[in-house]
Amino acid sequence: MSLHDIQNSITSAEAAAGRPAGSVSLIAVSKVQPNARVEAVLTEGHRCFGENKVQEAAGKWPDFRERFGKVDLHLIGPLQTNKARQAIELFDAIHSVDRPKLAKTLARLAQEVGRCPDLFVQVNTGEEDQKAGIMPADADSFIAECLAMDLPVKGLMCIPPVNEEPSLHFALLAKIAARNGVAGLSMGMSSDFERAIALGATHVRVGSAIFGERVVG
Fold first, then answer.
1. Is residue 101 packed enough to be buried (19+ CB in 10 Å), middle (13-18) or exposed (0-12)?
2. Residues 80, 103 contacting (CB under 8 angstroms)
3. How many CA atoms lie within 13 Å of 176's alpha carbon, on the beta-carbon side?
4. How far, in Å, are 24, 60, 98, 121, 157 from residue 125 at the CA level?
5. Which pLDDT score is estimated for 214?
6. pLDDT value, residue 2
7. At residue 151, does pLDDT exceed 70?
8. How far apart are CA 186 and CA 201, in angstroms?
9. Distance between CA 87 and CA 142 in Å, rounded?
10. What is the DSSP string of 22-86?
11. Helix or strand or coil: residue 96?
12. Contact, 48 vs 28, CB < 8 A?
């Protein structure tokens, strides 16, 4: 599918859900993609991208921003506390706030640096041992803890288990967000973003459908 096809599918899904056109942001997931593929999408005019690793993004995006201007850059992978300062300086949003230690580090650094990206709390909706994220039962208290530290929590993020119906997890995330007064919902990927939009996604993370299969060196 082309970028244009994805954007049309998002517009159709917005309409089917009775939502305004443009209410969903498309994050083009450019992690481990060759620079030539990323540049092609930039040349088409897209300006919202997602990366998994701080180091990879740091080696790629300063040059692209110099050449293409303002780019909205989202960190969608796990963040180590020792990379938090660099992440604050590089990214416009961080979707993987998943533990108290990281939240406290971000709060301290935000005061030092004088800015903080938009933050999304990652919720482990499938309660999977191997996956990062706050457990659903702990989400309310963790969100409150983050807000008490003046962190700009704009939304929640989830990655559903691969062998379960994602809509169940999207609905759970939306329910947690609603009761905490949080508007953003980062959910839905290449295979299920239309279902995510139907359940309120504000950000969908699409990689392979735009760029083709990832290239791992």
1. exposed
2. no
3. 30
4. 21, 32, 12, 12, 9
5. 66
6. 87
7. yes
8. 6
9. 21
10. T-SEEEEE-TT--HHHHHHHHHTT--EEEES-HHHHHTTHHHHHHHH---EEEE-S---GGGHHH
11. strand
12. yes
Q: Which neighbouring-strand residues pair with 27?
A: 205
Which phi and psi (to 5°) does residue 4 adopt? -60, -40
Phi, psi of 69 (to 5 degrees): 85, -155
Both structure tokens of 143: 């969100």
Q: How far apart are CA 183 and CA 2, in angstroms?
A: 29
Q: Give yes or no for residue 213 having a pLDDT over 90.
A: no
Distances (CA, A) of 173 to 27, 106, 142, 209: 19, 23, 14, 24
In this prediction, residue 216 carries a pLDDT of 57
Examine the pLDDT at 1 and tell me if it is beyond 80.
no
Alpha helix stretches (DSSP H) within 149-188: 166-179
Mean pLDDT over each residue of the chain, to the nearest integer: 96
Whether residue 22 contacts residue 48, with contact meaning beta carbons closer than 8 Å, is answered with no
User: How far apart are alpha carbons 84 and 43 in whole angstroms?
Assistant: 30
Amino acid identity, position 84: A
The answer for residues whose C-beta is within 8 angstroms of residue 190's C-beta and 6 or more apart is 206, 207, 208, 209
Q: Are 161 and 126 in contact (CB under 8 A)?
A: yes
Compute the residue count for the chain. 217
Quick one: which of 192, 212, 209 has its CA closest to 201?
192
d(CA 156, CA 132): 13
